[in-house]
């Protein structure tokens, strides 16, 4: 007789693996065969997880259509079944999946649109955080400021794409009014996505130096090193004004030496 843990793992495998043909013998038939009962769970799980993906990736779904999305979702679910009881955590690898998904090869912008939507999803559900203690920050001696390390707000993400993904996302929002055309040749974009205290999520388009500065700090580099990288990326960049703006808008929530 299988232990509870073995039964649970076997059942999960059988639900997500169409080739699993032996676990049904552990199911007591009561009107339906074990195979049929597994099929019911399999169908319900597929519908539930596909719905969860559509909730996170509505723009991707709109771009490819329901039929294509459902097919892609089924392939994704088979390769990346949910590992958590919280459906908000499901779909993390969808962008990487789309990069390698042969039927979507010609839609070269699609994985980056998915990354934007996943970032939005994470930001929406991120925990609140107390603001940066500006008074304590002001007390750091000038000779030590270059050694400062900053923590990005949990409800903030940095994104970069070779395609105009923000424009693609905007014109595919429900109720969008305006010119729906997108020129894929207009170039890439660098973004900061940030949730404000009002719970509004804002996308800010960044210059090269600004993006380099924020990325370096978000990756844990010291302030002096981050400043050097920013100025190398964009000579003449107004670094003090940029950093002050992001401090005041709450992009950073903590620091340490």
Provide a quick synopsis of the model.
Helices cover 48% and strands 11% of the residues. With 257 residues, it is mainly alpha-helical.
Question: Describe it for me?
Answer:
- With 257 residues, the chain is mainly α.
- It has a domain at 127-257: Alpha-Beta Complex (Outer Surface Protein A, domain 3).
- Helices cover 48% and strands 11% of the residues.
- Strands 2-3-4 form a three-stranded antiparallel sheet, with helices on both faces.
- The protein is elongated.
- It starts with a helix and ends with a strand.
Q: What is the CATH architecture assignment of the domain at 127-257?
A: Alpha-Beta Complex
Q: What would you call the shape?
A: elongated
Briefly note the CATH topology name of the domain at 127-257: Outer Surface Protein A, domain 3
Sheet/helix structural class: mainly alpha
- Determine and state the CATH class of the domain at 127-257: Alpha Beta
Rg over CA atoms, rounded to whole Å, is 23 Å
- The first-to-last residue Cα distance is 57 Å
Helical region count?
11
Helix fraction, binned, reads 40-55%
The chain-level mean pLDDT equals 90
Spatial arrangement of strands, main beta sheet = 2-3-4
Q: Tell me about the largest β-sheet.
A: 3 strands, antiparallel
